[in-house]
# Entry
Amino acid sequence: MSRLFSNRPGDDGLPGPERRLAVLALILGTLMAVVDVTMVNIALPSIARDLEVSDARAVWVTNLFQIVCAAFLLVCASFSEMISRRRLYVAGLALFVLAALGAALSRSLEWLLVFRALQGLGAAATLSIGPSLYRSIFPTRLLGSALGLSALVVAGGYAAGPALGGLILSAVSWPWLFALHLPLGLVSLWLAWRALPREKGRRGGFDGRGALGSVVMLGSFFLAMDTLGHGAPLWQALAWLALSVVAGGLFLRRQRRASHPLLPPRLFRVPRFRLAVSASGLAFVGQGLAFVALSFLYQQEMGLSPLHTAWLFTPWPLAIMLVGPLAGRLADRLNPSLMASLGLVLLMLGLASLALLPPDAGVVDSLWRTALCGIGFGLFQPPNNREMMTSAPRELSTSASGVLSTTRTVGQSLGVALVGAFMATGAPVQATLWVGCLACLLALAASLARVSLAGAAQAESRETASQVQSSSKRVQ
# Structure
């Protein structure tokens, strides 16, 4: 860990000691956003009972947060370039914390949904620019290690959320889940304001029409996926999807003409970036699909309780927590595309082994398969994120960060919707896991296609760093 805060001649980013407080601010902000979703999921039955609403309506406490967050990721990333990432991050944290207080005090579902939407907007502001802030805080030689730490934080949040939510609900009522954000949020706000890199916002207008198109495109897409995943009439999902396609076409047309586009077209002219985005989206389809499919497999096919099901899921995030930081560190030294490809192979093998899991399988039989998936995903994510961020021109880091976050969210939502669509046709749940394998196979093809490009870029980066160090020694 101390290596992350070491200094070398020619390092970009913040000096070593300043990185500690800055990265702590990012860790706390990310943890609050990630833990929130999994923690609140546990409380949905209690919220439905206390507010006297149906379970189907209570689900929107989670759904609305996720839809708003996803719809505004690109918008927030672009807006940060005008006011600076530090100011947007602090504003997003403040909105998230104040909305959490409002949610804790809500006594009706309508007000709770209003504050959950505001929380989603605050989370979008912080999550959209997190990866680009890591690139500004850490030197390029340590970026893989830093993103590995980020993967550990996200996986730890997903793993700890249900347990933390259950622990709190065993002692107090559900509003305390939201009140928990207040002390953490205040500490994170102070750290972010004090330690995040200070920068000037760019001059120029904001692409308002592009922002509207982006929100409609992504919002309607997620509504289509949610409708499809919950077994609503097919025409509703198709209507939302049609709106998303139309808005997407108008959005892309606008991006080619805007002076300050939300999604700069030249970003996708970089082959390494384009392939990394493709691999990321497909891998997250596989993970999102597996998380839902396994819930049905364990409970309906194998007859296990929800508690046992949650326990059988645990190896996945735990494996990411253990493997992710190591994968990030190795990606700074080895070809990151090769490492990401190896991770996809293991993820694919893990999903295939789960698809072949017999109904009378024992606990150990399930655990090692889930752990294999987690190891594979932990090996894939930090190196692939490193590729995505380092292949983008530095001046487009914020846009690349928004794309990274949006791709992850779109992939997971599409995976969840695919499970619902397949099961609505009467297909066995194991069939959806084979679809996950196919998604990972396509991701592997994209990852292997950039191996030589990544190797050449890494060799060039090392040569440049060596020249900088030699120049520094001559000056001394």
Summary: The chain has a mean pLDDT of 81. DSSP finds 19 helices and no strands in the chain. Residues 16-50 form the longest helix (35 residues).
